[in-house]
Amino acid sequence: MDKEKLKKELDYERKKEEKIRFLESKHAIVLATSLNGRVTARTVSFASDGLDIYFMSWGHHTKCVQIRGNPRVALCRDNVQMEGLAEILGNPLDEKNREYADILRSKYPRQHEMFACEPGMVIVRVVLTSVVTFVEIDDRLYLECLDLGNEIGYLRELAE
User: Fold this and answer.
1) Beta-bridge partner residues of 56
2) pLDDT at residue 37 is higher than 90
3) Which domain holds residue 129?
4) Confidence of residue 1 (pLDDT cuts 50, 70, 90)
5) What is the pTM of this model?
6) CB-based contact 23:15 (threshold 8 Å)
7) Strand partners, 145
């Protein structure tokens, strides 16, 4: 069967808002990074602003080293898979990062107070480029796909 025939257009704005609410309701997410053929994954505490994801890390940790060399990352939580581009913004106490630090502080006030002042701590932003969710409708499996760059959403049946 032709894969194009298996696609059904979705209400992009409505599905985007659903994903924003989903991210706002979560506290941890799995982040996968890679560099030079080595892929690593770990759970990070995060805060979101729309579909942008923020977390703090020490700049020398593997995830930051890999992001500097390859900003393409993948994330997952429950049945939602995401891809995006990561950027190390720098020290959470720098004035230029106040807005991003405030996003993290509002969700994690105690952790922000404990870790933002640690030497080498950085804020990382991930700008999502795609979100794919596995869904079941009438006993059939589908992929609910959001292409954030092109602002389109579609439902694709999983081929048997």
Assistant:
1) 123
2) yes
3) 3-157
4) very low
5) 0.91
6) no
7) 132, 154
| Size of the chain in residues | 160
Average pLDDT of span 17-33: 97
98: Cβ–Cβ under 8 A, 6 or more apart, which residues? none
* Helices (H), ranges, the chain: 12-24, 62-69, 98-107, 109-115
Alpha helices in 25-154 (DSSP H): 62-69, 98-107, 109-115
* Predicted local distance difference test score (pLDDT) of residue 8: 85
Q: What is the pLDDT of residue 5?
A: 46
CATH code at position 47: 2.30.110.10
Q: What's the domain count of the chain? A: 1
Two structure tokens written together for 41: 């994954």
For 39-58, what is the mean pLDDT? 97
Cβ distance 50 to 58 under 8 Å?
no
Query: Measured between alpha carbons, how far is 16 from 131 in angstroms, rounded to an integer?
Result: 9
How far apart are the C-alpha atoms of 89 and 151, rounded to whole Å?
25
Residue type, 49: D
